[in-house]
Design goal:
about 425 residues, mainly alpha, MFS_trans_sf, MFS_dom, MFS transporter
């Protein structure tokens, strides 16, 4: 383990600090919005700005990283994220917050991309699975732990916003002090959603609806928790319990899906999540609600991971990176729309509308999964993929997955060096008179 952690310890430390600040800020903004009297629909629109920025940043980030390098890019966007965190408390206006959320989303996806491309370059093929699992555990653990920081002070005070900014800035220290060489950022393959919909329609549908449901969760679950009777620390507890459920229960679900028809596993996972969501809509704050949210989190968080594993089953190895990028895009669009839809419903129907939103969206996926399992025979390729718990971060993380073809970064760097040398020694063209 020490030999595994030595080259990537600073990267994992940086992402842990970053996500402690990020996880705290996301929930804190929702609680502050409630305290300021913003409507649930307005909070949903405001929180969707983060996911919109995340999508925009996916296209903007690679060019900047290639131009100024990993460390400078990380420093620039960590500073932007910290500034955005502090401006939320200095300018308390929902429309200003919406713009800040977009900028913050652009910053976060770029920070993810820097760290993940660096991890890819440091890990050999036989250790990719271990590093990927460790990276996802750090992600989920930091997000869960961040929720407990909410009990340190009131959302109306400056303290928690300052703490979020401090944690984000702290992520700079292990990253900028690393002695690891900066890698070459590889080109991501083009994505053809129409072709992916023809080859693997169920994984694409599952990725989009998973984003829709979990986008609603990340954006509106703190509102729901406060409306059913939790105080600020209780809101943090419910968020932590749900995230921990996603971390713990994905493993047994994944092992089961590796030995059974993934379409049927998807059907049962989604159907159980629907039943639990309906049960949750009937409860108020208490241990039973926390228990159901733990199980629901395990089921809901595993849907995207099952979709990725089934997509790997159905695509040729050379198509996996492109297909995974397509699932990530579908998931991102769903996540951007989820808080808006859930927030609008909660404005009219109250707290119970959020779990009902989960039940309706996932119920549609359950019906489609049932149709695919009973009426359609999917073409499977060899070898089959393996379930890997995954969060939607940046497209670069897809290369770290054990089932994706490994990219030779040394060859890419050598090719880039040759291009620079050939350009330097090229004979100038004669001047035209």
């Amino acid at each position: 383990m020490s030999s595994l952690l030595a080259p990537i310890g600073s990267l994992l430390g940086g992402v842990a600090l970053l996500l402690l600040g990020h996880g705290l800020l996301n929930t804190l903004l929702t609680l502050r919005g409630i305290a300021e009297g913003y409507s649930t629909g307005l909070i949903g629109v405001m929180m969707s700005g983060y996911f919109a920025g995340f999508l925009v940043g996916t296209w903007l980030a690679p060019s900047l990283i290639r131009r100024v390098g990993h460390i400078r890019t990380f420093a620039f966007y960590a500073a932007l994220a910290a500034i955005a965190a502090l401006l939320h408390v200095l300018i308390v206006n929902p429309w200003v917050w919406l713009v800040l959320r977009v900028l913050y989303g652009i910053a976060l996806v770029t920070l993810y991309m820097v760290i993940e491309s660096w991890l890819n370059a440091q890990v050999s093929g036989d250790k990719r699975g271990q590093v990927f699992a460790l990276y996802m555990a750090v992600n989920l653990g930091a997000l869960a732990l961040a929720q407990q920081l909410l009990s340190l002070d009131s959302p109306l005070q400056f303290t928690l916003f300052a703490l979020a900014a401090i944690l984000i800035c702290s992520a700079l220290m292990p990253i900028t002090l690393t002695r690891q060489a900066q890698p070459t950022l590889p080109d991501m393959p083009s994505t053809d959603l129409l072709q992916l919909a023809r080859i693997a329609p169920l994984p694409l549908m599952a990725a989009g609806i998973s984003g829709l449901a979990l986008g609603g969760f990340w954006g509106l679950a703190p509102v729901y928790a406060s409306q059913v009777g939790f105080d600020a620390s209780g809101v943090g507890l419910m968020m932590s319990v749900t995230i921990l459920g996603g971390a713990v229960l994905q493993w047994p679900i994944g092992l089961f899906s590796d030995t059974h028809d993934r379409r049927l596993v998807m059907l049962w996972v989604v159907a159980l999540a629907v039943v639990l969501a309906i049960g949750i809509s009937l409860l108020t704050a208490g241990p039973l609600l926390l228990g159901l949210m733990f199980i629901w989190g395990g089921l809901a968080f595993s849907i995207y991971s099952i979709a990725v594993a089934q997509m790997v089953d159905q695509l040729h190895p050379d198509e996996i990176l492109s297909g995974s990028s397509g699932l990530l895009l579908a998931n991102g669009f769903g996540a951007a729309f989820g808080p808006v839809a859930a927030g609008g419903l909660m404005t009219f129907f109250g707290a119970m509308a959020l779990p009902i939103f989960f039940a309706v969206t996932l119920g549609f996926l359950a019906l489609y999964s049932f149709y695919r399992s009973r009426r359609v025979v999917d073409l499977l390729t060899e070898p089959h993929g393996h379930f890997t718990p995954i969060l939607r971060t940046s497209p670069t993380v897809l290369e770290l997955m054990p089932d994706t073809p490994e990219i030779d970064h040394d060859a890419q760097q050598h090719e880039a060096d040759e291009e620079v040398q050939s350009a330097a020694y090229a004979e100038p063209e004669p001047a035209k008179h």
